[in-house]
Specification:
558 residues; Sodium/glucose cotransporter
Length: 558
């Protein structure tokens, strides 16, 4: 189906509507707390849509559909690797809210000192660059494929960037979350719309099984998506999720801790539902190529765009492309706001202008996010594919995630151990990973250089640097000097003081970065242990249910 005028009208109407809706929210921004954290006043629906929108981008279906097109149902693990980490979100979320920080850099500076606070800011900017680049890359790949070259990769990136930068710069997190309440629904549409059209064309799930080999319905595959690959990547995902620089705003901008828990956990579960649609779409594409309906693709990451082009009628194609842009812009605007918070607060105010007023910080923030966006655009034209960008992202997040977990769970963790761990992990990743792989042709005498650089060897790379990082973290923390007692006491008091009991912090003389709303949820206050353990178990059951649903989808019609 050719990209028609009706499709173009649908896409342009969507872009215009989101731009107007987002820019209109600028009138609600009166302080840096509003710009960076929305006043910490979002309800559960907004928090769920924020978690879904920020955590989902078009690179997810591009990577999953592409991997499923090449390997079958096992391709789902490019996003399902977070499935069994999701119950931990219920426990993690309140600690971000209780910290009363605006950025994760605030966390690192409070726990480990100014040096690691600066390191995290640099790593956070690098992480955003990688992720923004991957998203822009996937946008260009899809748009060019869907329109069969009518809209070039660079033009689609430019148009989308202008829109999300406009409303993100004007309205900050408030504009981001309000637009995500619309875009989140479109993300679900994007994820599931192709499945019924594809199944009708093939004669249902039984038609899939008649056309395809049984191996395409296995939940693991040799090499890239083996059981070892899935387990190692899942562990890295759990380690890295806490230090992803947008997790602070996703967890801590609700009215109470309860909104953060529900939003982060169950907004993410909606993404797991979307992933089921992506993997079935990828398998449908294998069958369409096998029966001659679609020509074989030169690159697996063309599969999602090709599915849109061949399965959807006019109008629906435009709706799908609008939904893809929704997934992109919801994440990109959130990342830009989080990046601007780190650059304006943790660089500009911390080192360049300590006496900057709150208004000046907001003004600086409105422009510094553009730096990260510009670097992301550059990265988009550097990386060979979207799956590579995802594996880079998991690695970078795990570098700092390891000692962020340790900084909460083990009081003896200090800056010495954290620095040593970071340096060792980065060095191993560089030498054995993708950087070493690119250098290896120039140093043929070192055959081991970059030996685990391919995404199929991700599990070997993780097993090389993560255990080494843990060991060095422990040794360095035992040998180094601990943080002063008062500073540690203040840090842990923040994390253990529920929202609604801020008077305890005032009595102890603990400095608070930003409180926002301070009402506590009655369940959190009266039954904290029941909420913690009961909520975790409920989320674990939902995770198991999703795994069971994945298994059933792979067996229906067989």
């Amino acid at each position: 189906m050719q990209f028609a005028l009706l499709d173009a009208v649908v896409v342009l109407a969507y872009l215009l509507g989101m731009g107007i809706l987002g820019i209109y929210q600028a009138r609600k921004v009166r302080s840096s707390g509003d710009f960076f954290a929305g006043g910490r006043g979002f309800n559960k629906f907004f928090m769920m849509m924020h978690a879904l929108g920020t955590g989902t981008s078009a690179e997810d279906p591009v990577a999953v559909v592409g991997a499923a097109y090449q390997r079958g149902f096992s391709g789902v693990w490019y996003t399902f690797l977070y499935l069994f980490a999701t119950p931990f979100y219920w426990v993690i979320a309140p600690y971000f809210r209780r910290s009363r920080y605006l950025t994760t850099s605030d966390f690192f500076e409070a726990r480990f000192g100014a040096g690691l606070g600066l390191l995290y800011t640099i790593m956070g900017v690098l992480t955003f660059t990688i992720y923004i680049g991957g998203m822009l890359k996937s946008t260009g790949t899809i748009a060019q494929s869907v329109t069969q070259g009518m809209v070039s990769e660079w033009l689609s990136i430019l148009i989308m960037t202008v829109v999300f930068v406009s409303y993100g710069t004007a309205g900050g997190l408030i504009a981001t979350v309000v637009t995500e309440s619309v875009q989140g629904l479109l993300i679900v549409v994007m994820s599931l719309l192709l499945v019924p059209f594809g199944l009708v064309k093939l004669g249902g799930f039984s038609g899939l099984h008649r056309i395809l080999d049984d191996s395409k319905f296995d939940l693991a595959a040799p090499g890239e998506l083996s059981v070892a690959w899935i387990v190692c990547a899942s562990v890295a995902a759990l380690i890295g999720i806490v230090s992803q620089p947008h997790t602070m705003e996703v967890c801590s901008t609700g009215r109470t801790e309860w909104e953060g828990r529900v939003g982060f956990t169950y907004g993410t579960f909606i993404k797991r539902l979307c992933a089921l649609g992506w993997v079935v779409t990828g398998v449908i594409m294998i069958a369409l190529v096998a029966n001659g309906t679609v020509s074989d693709l030169s690159h697996r990451e063309e599969a999602f765009g090709a599915a849109i082009r061949v399965l959807l009628p006019a109008g629906f194609t435009g709706l799908m492309l609008a939904a893809i842009l929704a997934a992109q812009m919801s994440s990109l605007s959130a990342f830009m706001v989080a990046a601007s918070a780190m650059l304006s607060r943790n660089i500009y105010r911390r080192y360049l202008h300590p006496r900057a007023t709150d208004h000046e910080v907001v003004v600086v923030a409105r422009y510094t996010g553009l730096i990260v966006v510009a670097m992301g655009v550059g990265f988009a034209f550097y990386i060979p594919g979207v799956a590579e960008a995802l594996t880079y992202f998991w690695a970078v997040a795990s570098f700092t995630g390891l000692f962020m977990w340790a900084g909460v769970l083990w009081r003896r963790t200090n800056a010495t151990g954290a620095w040593a761990s970071f340096i060792v992990m980065v060095a191993i990743w560089f030498v054995l990973g993708p950087v070493g792989q690119r250098l290896q042709p120039y140093v043929p005498s070192l055959p081991w250089l970059g030996m685990y650089g391919d995404k199929a060897h991700l599990h070997y790379l993780l097993m090389s640097y993560l255990p080494a990082g843990v060991l060095v973290l422990i040794v360095g923390s035992l040998l180094g000097s601990p943080l002063e007692k008062k500073r540690l006491d203040d840090f842990y008091l923040l994390l253990h003081t529920p929202v609604g009991r801020e008077h305890k912090l005032a009595e102890a003389g603990v400095d608070v970065v930003y409180m926002g709303r301070t009402e506590g949820h009655p369940w959190e206050i009266k039954h904290p242990h029941l909420v913690n353990f009961g909520g975790f178990l409920a989320a674990l059951l939902v995770s198991l249910a999703f795994f069971g649903l994945l298994y059933l989808l792979a067996r229906i019609g067989g």
